[in-house]
Amino acid sequence: MPTFDTVDNMTLILASSSPFRRELLSRLGVEFSSVSPNIDESPRIGEPPQTLVQRLALEKALAVGATHPKALIIGSDQVAVLDQQILGKPGSHARAVEQLQQASGKRVTFYTGLCLYNSASGERQIVCEPFDVLFRDLTLQEIERYLHKETPYNCAGSFKSEGLGISLFKAMQGNDPTALIGLPLIQLVNMLRNEGMDVLTA
Q1: What are the φ/ψ torsions at residue 5 (nearest 5 degrees)?
Q2: Helices marked H in the chain — which ranges?
Q3: Quick one: 85 exposed, middle or buried, by C-beta within 10 A (0-12, 13-18, 19+)?
Q4: Which residues are known catalytic residues?
Q5: Distance CA 111, CA 71 (A)
Q6: Is 88 within 8 Å of 158 (Cβ atoms)?
Q7: Which of 24, 96, 123, 144 could form an S-S bond across to 158 if both were Cys, CB 3.0 to 4.6 Å?
Q8: Are 105 and 143 in contact (CB under 8 A)?
Q9: Cα(41)–Cα(82) distance, rounded to whole angstroms?
Q10: H or E segment and range at residue 126
Q11: pLDDT number for residue 87
């Protein structure tokens, strides 16, 4: 794999323990390590989802940067919003059924906050990448069959778009399909390039 050692000996760190984000970042073919940021992810009263995900992405990167003084650190956070309400991770079968019944025939917007923090210079780049999913009209039988096959109880919105969850959709709309999985690679590549790191030539 290419490394970024030739650019001021910077290391690349993903401030996350998510296997989905690790898999996405590995697509770029660069060496990186993962560190769990261990922060309080509670939303603030009245905080818009776009603000929430950008704040948490930054806080995750800063938390890891506190112990890694010469690194490029990637922080990311995501929420799903339906009818102006944030959908959390279901955590159980019953809650997942409820979420998918609520989403049936409706549009769910996923907001993904992304931060690239240079812990040596203090530079930080932060964006919020939206992505819309329009669900088909789902029957209870379809929902039950899907959940028993994929058990997406640790996923916001109760589905895995990179798996069988795609069968629940009528349409998707957004600039970067990887944002839906939790790490917008198009934005990230641009951020890395701003730091002088080109994944194609590193």
Answers
A1: -60, -25
A2: 19-26, 49-65, 93-103, 140-150, 177-181, 185-194
A3: exposed
A4: 77
A5: 26
A6: no
A7: 96
A8: no
A9: 19
A10: strand 124-135
A11: 85
**pTM for the full model?**
0.89
The per-residue b/e assignment along 102-136, b for 16 or more CB within 10 angstroms, e otherwise, is bbbeeebbbbbbbbbbbbeeeebbbbbbbbebebe
Residue the block writes with tokens 């990637």: 74
- 137 forms beta bridges with none
- The pLDDT of residue 2 is 43
DSSP assignment of 64-118 equals: HHTT-SSEEEEEEEEEEEETTEEE----SHHHHHHHHHHHTTSEEEEEEEEEEEE
Q: Rounded to whole angstroms, how far apart are CA atoms 190 and 132? A: 22
The pLDDT confidence band at residue 106, using thresholds 50, 70 and 90, is: very high
Structure tokens at 25: 């970042």
Q: Is the separation of the CB atoms in 52 and 77 below 8 Å?
A: yes
